[in-house]
């Protein structure tokens, strides 16, 4: 008897697949196919987005480089211009200083124009940075910020010490964004010391020109009677005994006329001016001549005049006659202002900076209250001086 089941019998033992299960399987397979398709589409979209993101990143990097280059370019412009530039934030803190401002105002440790931003907690209040005579600049800058106004044409005298000063012309403006909000203030300034000096020279020349016209008109009117007075006094003196009182009076008249004539001559020479005739000549000879001509005055006042000439003298393009007269005038002034027993030193120098003849005395110097008047015609502090 064979106990092994037949194949037909075993197949009949498998459960039959129901229609519902077949339907579920079909739905599952369809969903799986859809998921695969969706996954593939997502992968494709990710690849597309990655490419777009790479493009955007490159564009953004390029834009950052362009902005950085533009910022550096603007910073280089500010650093290169001759005018000084200062900026502050809304809290009056100094956030940028260009090289011209740093050099002129002697600001140490100042924030460069490309390293600070408004609101930087590391910035220092401008009033703490700009002290002394520089404080006026800080006040103008803060005024423009606080009042939201433009300030122009302000002048500040910058004291450099050792009797040196500079004149600064300052303008300040609020800094606004596109919406009109105030982000801080900026001040620009320039050194106009030489301009003011030239204006002073021009005004002085204008005064001298007017004086020259007047002097030329009256010189002959003065000299004609002076000549007659001197002639009559000289004639009278010749008819008188040399030791008589009348002869001495005539001598005084002649000396007074000579003094008046020299004043008129000096006035004409000073107001009309005389173009220098330049030629190579020695400063040392000019100095020696001035010292010789002033020797009597120095001896009378008990003043010693020393000289220290350049080790290697060289000729300079000068007018020896005019320069000798100028050096003598300065030297006589120095001798007259030096206390008895003092020393006046005359030196010459020839170097890369040029040629120089210097006179130094031990006197009190020029008082500040008259310093602006010393070049005015006829201004003098001495009883016998003419100011010319």
Characterise the protein shown here.
The protein has 388 residues and is α+β, with helices and mostly antiparallel strands. It contains 10 helices and 11 strands. It has helices at residues 7-11, 19-80, 99-105, 126-129, 135-147, 193-238, 245-272, 283-293, 295-301, 320-337; strands at residues 84-88, 93-97, 124-125, 151-161, 164-176, 182-191, 279-281, 304-308, 316-318, 343-351, 354-360. A 6-stranded antiparallel β-sheet has the order 3-2-1-6-5-4, with helices on both faces. Residues 114-121 have low confidence and may be disordered.
Write a brief caption for the model:
The protein has 388 residues and is α+β, with helices and mostly antiparallel strands. The protein has helices spanning 7-11, 19-80, 99-105, 126-129, 135-147, 193-238, 245-272, 283-293, 295-301, 320-337; strands at residues 84-88, 93-97, 124-125, 151-161, 164-176, 182-191, 279-281, 304-308, 316-318, 343-351, 354-360.
> What is the helix fraction of residues, given as a range?
40-55%
Strand content: 15-25%
Strand order of the largest sheet: 3-2-1-6-5-4
Largest sheet: 6 strands, antiparallel
Shape: rod-shaped
Q: What is the CA-CA span between the terminal residues? A: 162 Å
User: Low-confidence spans: pLDDT under 50, at least 5 residues?
Assistant: 114-121
> Which radius of gyration do the C-alpha atoms yield?
46 Å
Number of strands: 11
């Amino acid at each position: 008897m064979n106990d092994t089941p037949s194949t037909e019998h075993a197949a009949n033992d498998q459960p039959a697949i129901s229609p519902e299960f077949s339907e579920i399987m079909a739905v599952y397979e369809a969903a799986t196919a859809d998921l695969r398709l969706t996954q593939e589409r997502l992968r494709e979209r990710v690849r597309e987005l990655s490419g777009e993101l790479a493009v955007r990143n490159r564009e953004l990097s390029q834009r950052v480089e362009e902005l950085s280059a533009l910022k550096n370019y603007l910073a280089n412009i500010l650093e290169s211009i001759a005018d000084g530039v200062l900026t502050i934030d809304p809290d009056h803190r100094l956030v940028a200083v260009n090289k011209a401002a740093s050099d002129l105002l002697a600001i140490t440790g100042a924030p460069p124009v490309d390293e600070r931003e408004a609101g930087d907690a590391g910035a220092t209040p401008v009033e703490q940075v700009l002290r002394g005579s520089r404080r006026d600049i800080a006040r103008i800058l803060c005024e423009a910020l606080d009042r939201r106004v433009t300030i122009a044409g302000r002048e500040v005298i910058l004291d450099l010490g050792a009797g040196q000063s500079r004149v600064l012309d300052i303008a300040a403006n609020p800094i606004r964004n596109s919406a009109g909000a105030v982000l801080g203030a900026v001040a620009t300034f320039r050194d106009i010391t030489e301009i003011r000096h030239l204006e002073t020279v021009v005004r002085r020349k204008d005064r001298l020109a007017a004086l020259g016209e007047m002097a030329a008109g009256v010189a002959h009117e003065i000299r004609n009677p002076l000549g007659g007075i001197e002639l009559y006094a000289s004639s009278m003196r010749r008819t008188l005994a040399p030791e008589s009182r009348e002869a001495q009076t005539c001598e005084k008249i002649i000396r007074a006329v000579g003094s008046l004539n020299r004043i008129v001559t000096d006035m004409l020479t000073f107001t009309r001016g005389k173009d220098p005739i330049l030629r190579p000549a020695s400063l040392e000879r000019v100095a020696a001549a001035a010292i010789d001509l002033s020797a009597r005055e120095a001896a009378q006042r008990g003043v010693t005049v020393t000289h220290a000439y350049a080790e290697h003298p060289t000729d300079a393009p000068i007018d020896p006659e005019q320069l000798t007269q100028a050096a003598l005038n300065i030297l006589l002034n120095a001798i007259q202002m030096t206390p008895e027993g003092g020393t006046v030193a005359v030196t010459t120098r020839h170097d890369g900076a040029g040629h120089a003849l210097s006179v130094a005395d031990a006197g009190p110097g020029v008082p500040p209250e008259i310093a602006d008047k010393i070049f005015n015609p006829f201004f003098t502090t001495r009883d016998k001086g003419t100011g010319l």
